[in-house]
Automatic annotation (TrEMBL), chain A:
Family in the record: Belongs to the binding-protein-dependent transport system permease family. LivHM subfamily.
CDD domains given in the database record: TM_PBP1_LivH_like
Compartments where found: Cell membrane
Name of the protein described by the UniProt record: Branched-chain amino acid ABC transporter permease
One Pfam assignment: BPD_transp_2
Record membrane topology: Multi-pass membrane protein
Transmembrane segments: 12-32, 39-57, 63-85, 97-120, 150-167, 196-214
Chief location of this protein within or outside the cell: membrane
Entry keyword annotation includes Transmembrane: yes
Source lineage: Bacteria, Bacillati, Actinomycetota, Actinomycetes, Kitasatosporales
Presence of keyword Cell inner membrane: yes
Domain of life: Bacteria
Provenance organism: Streptomyces solicathayae
InterPro entries the UniProt entry points to: ABC_transp_permease, BCAA_transport_permease
Keywords on record: Amino-acid transport, Cell inner membrane, Cell membrane, Membrane, Transmembrane, Transmembrane helix, Transport
Automatic annotation (TrEMBL), chain B:
CDD domains: PBP1_ABC_LIVBP-like
Keywords: Signal
Record family assignment: Belongs to the leucine-binding protein family.
Keyword hit for Metal-binding: no
Domain Leucine-binding protein: 39-397
Organism: Streptomyces solicathayae
Record-given protein name: Branched-chain amino acid ABC transporter substrate-binding protein
Superkingdom field: Bacteria
Lineage of origin: Bacteria, Bacillati, Actinomycetota, Actinomycetes, Kitasatosporales
UniProt-listed InterPro entries: Leu-bd, Peripla_BP_I
One Pfam family per UniProt: Peripla_BP_6
Length: 310, 409
């Protein structure tokens, strides 16, 4: 049986998930040049928000109703937290040396994780998340897409299209581009840059909430510590694609996800490389890929579309 | 451009730093409980939070129950027992910090724990230096008691203070291979491990025995702890045509792996060691785990006549968490320390001697009693003499014991 289509499909689904989270890193970096390390935790909190919204629903609610409710619930919570973080943790440090907000972000990430750990009922170990019931979609022999993978494979492109249209067509989107290019001039032109920055945080958080719902639906569980590893991978995806570029984030995510699954499946079949294959080595391959890309294209695969202020 | 290389540098540095600090420690201020009279503290080290907390809380509560029982029965006249429970989050670094802390509390005469073999490795030397007895209810890695060269038949006990009430992976891995090959009739197994001391060791012992019996290990792979996406490994398993999976590791990854193998369309059972024998393994997702197998040390606690009282007492004490896989072993581990203290006190005219820690360690070798899990005593390596094992299978969403026997090599 040829397992390549299946591996590619799984890689795409994983990559789409990384991409959705990576948007948050890239948008914030594009506008304020801050690596928001708390974003992984925003993602995790989105998952817990979604779960809370679902538990409020009466028992036995079908997922067709549950998913939109979870998406809204997750987005509301993660956007609120992201906006709060921007207002109280990052805004006071605007203009401070760049290391200060970076360290604040790491601290905030620990705080958010511990808050969920300490106060969300049952969150000290994993929490069960509603899951799709039913068979996978068997497209042809050797390719079955699970329902959760189908969800993220549909949701991610839809979100990307919406974001692309928003940034290029709408007034706020153009204001966002202007702020990214040159915040001072944008301010002189009458753009409320504070509002734009909040918007960037909010959009990233909403995308992270979508990703959190997708992750929960796929694995059937969420954990207080799940934002760390996924956040790190998504950040890698953003750098790989070219941090600051929203399409780069998605492409970086997909490249990362596919590289991960293919390296597990195929590296060991390369003659002489069998001891370097399998799940144990996947991160080595993925990060080697990142180093290679950064060596030859320091700006990432797509590069940063907006002018760098440096 | 300078800024860009700065960004790359920051990225690399912070990524590295974050990875290293991912497992930070959480301290909960150990208190020195020394106040007149004779108080003996039994330390507990287990993962009380995080993904293995279901097992860790069971360990802590069971030790607490043993201590309360000893105090109520006045097991050692004139001595009041207390527990000091520390959370190691299943990480070796935190375990080492806890070991240092427990050594520093002078009333601690014995420690029950930890859960993970890898964590134990980081703690043994500290306890040995301080002459402090350590009894693990759950470590199954052979090298902890028989030295690094145990595989070559060269047994050398590295630490005189180390004891355990759980049987080792040598016995468990061989027992699993025998069951899977002979009783379940599986001939082609795909072996996965989680790269940890326990998981990798168990998987290797299992593979050797399975091949020796005449079975085939079609391929192997490993997964990373705390990751959740194993679909690529699952697809490899499906494509390999294996008729079973053996997983050396713990239930958080094991449960997800079993689910994802079944989602990938391979209707084959996953087998593992005591690390996956937990209700949480089944609850990992909505996917049915029926048919999955696990070996665990000892007979099912519910079936041993000696365990009835333990289960009743545990219920009566009203602990929030179940006693889980290691409850009985933890109770016995604590009880063995209590018995050792009793022997030491009896030898010293009803008082604790000056070098109480060394005396307790000496007394451990002679401990022998009927415990929750059967007869409890230790051999010359500090390993339990109890070699009973059980195979459990998931049926209708619960673990059911299918075969219990005493292992004979």
């Amino acid at each position: 049986m040829n397992e390549l289509p299946q591996q590619l499909a799984d890689g795409l689904a994983l990559g789409a998930l990384y991409g959705l989270i990576a948007i948050g890193y890239t948008m914030v970096y594009g506008i304020v040049q801050l690596i928001n390390f708390a974003h992984g935790e925003i993602f995790m909190i989105g998952g817990f928000g979604a779960l809370t919204a679902y538990t409020i629903l009466p028992d036995g609610t079908p997922l067709a109703v549950g998913i939109p409710v979870m998406l809204i619930g997750g987005a509301v919570v993660s956007v609120a937290v992201a906006m709060g973080a921007e207002r109280f943790a990052y805004r006071p440090l605007r203009g401070a040396p760049r290391l200060a907000p970076l360290i604040t972000a790491i601290g905030l990430s620990i705080v958010l994780q511990q808050l969920i750990w300490g106060f969300y009922p049952g969150a000290k170990s994993k929490v069960t998340f509603p899951e799709f019931k039913g068979e996978s979609f068997q497209l042809f022999d050797g390719l079955a897409i699970s329902r959760a993978d189908a969800f993220v494979l549909v949701a991610a492109p839809l979100c990307m299209i919406a974001l692309g249209l928003f940034v290029s067509k709408s007034r706020s989107g153009r204001a966002m581009q202007a702020t990214a290019q040159d915040p001072d001039t944008a301010k002189l032109m009458g753009i409320n840059t504070d509002r734009i920055i909040v918007m960037a945080f909010a959009i990233g958080a909403a995308f992270a909430a979508v990703a959190a719902v997708a992750e929960g639906l796929d694995k059937g569980q969420i954990r207080f510590e799940m934002g760390f590893l996924l956040g790190l991978k998504a950040f890698t995806a953003a750098v790989l694609g070219g941090i600051g570029n929203i399409y780069g984030a998605m492409i970086g995510g997909v490249v990362l996800g596919v590289a991960e699954t293919l390296s597990i499946a195929y590296v060991e079949h390369i003659p002489g490389m069998d001891q370097f294959g399998g799940g144990a080595w996947k991160d080595i391959w993925v990060f080697s890929l990142l180093i290679l890309v950064l060596l030859f294209r320091p700006q990432g695969l797509l590069g940063q579309r907006t002018a760098d202020r440096a | 451009m300078r800024n860009r290389s700065l960004l790359v540098l920051t990225t690399v540095l912070t990524t590295g730093a974050l990875t290293l600090t991912a497992c930070g420690s959480r301290d909960d201020g150990g208190k020195d409980n020394s106040k007149g009279g004779t108080t003996v503290v039994i330390g507990v080290d287990a993962p009380l939070t995080g993904s293995l907390s279901a097992l860790g809380q069971g360990i802590k509560n069971s030790v607490d129950l043993a201590v309360q029982t000893a105090n109520k029965n006045k097991e050692v006249p004139g001595v009041t027992f207390k527990i000091e429970a520390l959370d190691d989050q299943a990480t070796p670094a935190t375990g080492k910090a806890n070991a240092t802390k427990l050594v520093g509390i002078k009333d601690v005469l014995g420690v029950v724990g930890p859960l993970n073999s890898g964590v134990s490795q980081s703690m043994q030397a500290d306890f040995d230096k301080a002459n402090l007895t350590q009894v693990s209810p759950a470590n199954t890695n052979p090298s902890l008691s028989k030295g690094d060269n145990w595989g070559k038949g060269d047994f050398k006990r590295p630490f005189k203070t180390y004891f355990r009430t759980a049987t080792t992976d040598v016995i468990q891995g061989k027992f699993a291979a025998n069951y899977l090959f002979k009783d379940a009739g599986k001939k082609k197994v795909f072996v996965v491990n989680d790269k940890q001391t326990y998981g990798a060791g168990l998987a290797a012992i299992f593979s050797d025995e399975f091949k020796r019996l005449g079975g085939t290990v079609v391929d192997t792979d490993s997964v990373t702890v705390k990751e959740t996406d194993f679909s690529s490994t699952a697809n490899k398993i499906k494509a390999s045509g294996a008729d079973s999976v053996y997983f050396g590791g713990q239930y958080p990854e094991g449960g997800l792996l079993s689910d994802q193998v079944k989602k990938a369309g391979a209707k084959i059972p996953t087998m593992g060691g005591d690390g996956i024998y937990d209700p949480e393994f089944i609850k990992a997702s909505g996917e049915a785990n029926d048919g999955d197998l696990a070996t665990s040390v000892g007979y099912p606690v519910e079936k041993l006549p000696t365990a009835k009282k333990f289960i009743e007492d545990y219920k009566a004490a009203g602990y929030k968490d179940p006693y889980a896989a290691y409850g009985g072993y933890s109770y016995d581990a604590a009880w063995s320390i209590i018995q050792a203290v009793k022997a030491v006190v009896a030898d010293n005219k009803g008082k604790l001697p000056e070098d109480a820690r060394a005396k307790v360690t000496e007394a451990m070798a002679k401990v022998s009693f009927e415990g929750v899990t059967g007869k409890v005593s230790f051999d010359e390596f500090g390993d339990t003499t109890n070699k009973q094992l059980t195979v459990y299978q998931v049926k209708n969403g619960a673990w059911v014991d299918v075969k219990s026997s005493t292992f004979e090599d």
